From TrEMBL:
Any Pfam family the entry gives: GLTP
Highest taxon, organism lineage: Eukaryota
InterPro entries: GLTP_sf (IPR036497), Glycolipid_transfer_prot_dom (IPR014830)
Residues covered by the Glycolipid transfer protein domain: 27-155
Record protein name field: Glycolipid transfer protein domain-containing protein
Family matches, as Gene3D superfamilies: Glycolipid transfer protein (1.10.3520.10)
Length: 196
């Protein structure tokens, strides 16, 4: 299952990368949310300690929100434009705010994969997750959340027990970088910034 999930994630983000790297094409909300939802099975496998609550709150519910939004809004850019018009971009629960949080989750997973590619340690899953969290999310979280996440990360399984998850790591790293760069440019082009 993990090997299949890994390939599904890589393939979905490769398809998204083609879209974002093609001038004149807008990213469909449905394609984006479908690709992001491929990670849900990974979170189920990692369901241990206090860690599961973090991806569930920061990722799963927000991806589901965009999946619902795709029924009414065809592209990510149009979705952001509509939130701007409604003056609700930074409101908790807005599609644009959720998109920014999803982008950070994708970045965290990319950094985690980059660390895994650089080490063969049996404990590298813990190390990679800790490094990725500190780099991407910790600057936006208070002390209590940081401590809860650190406790959860400490209970993660060794990499060897989840080796099937990392078969397509390099592919995801390359493809997701294009996708998150697109999202950065989208936010910046609308003068929204990316540090809120």
């Amino acid at each position: 299952k993990l090997a299949m999930a890994s390939k599904g994630i890589a393939d979905s983000f490769k398809e998204l990368a083609v879209i974002v790297n093609t001038p004149g094409l807008d990213v469909p909300v449905k394609n984006f949310s479908d690709a992001c939802s491929r990670f849900f099975v990974v979170f189920k496998v990692l369901k241990t300690g206090m860690f599961p609550r973090f991806p569930e709150i920061e990722y799963v519910t927000k991806v589901n929100d965009l999946a619902e939004a795709s029924n009414l809004t065809p592209t990510l850019e149009l979705m952001v434009d509509r939130d701007i018009e409604a003056n609700c971009v930074r409101k908790v629960g807005s599609h644009t705010r959720n998109l920014l949080r999803i982008k950070r989750s994708l970045e965290m997973m990319r950094v985690m994969c980059e660390v895994l590619l650089d080490t063969e340690s049996d404990h590298s899953l813990r190390d990679a997750t800790f490094t990725a969290y500190n780099q991407v999310f910790a600057p936006h979280h208070g002390w209590a959340i940081q401590q809860a996440v650190a406790t959860g990360i400490g209970s993660l399984l060794p990499k060897t027990l989840l080796s099937g998850m990392f078969n397509e790591t390099g592919t995801y790293v390359t493809a997701s970088a294009s996708v998150t760069n697109y999202l950065d440019n989208l936010f910046l082009s609308k003068n929204l910034g990316i540090d809120w």
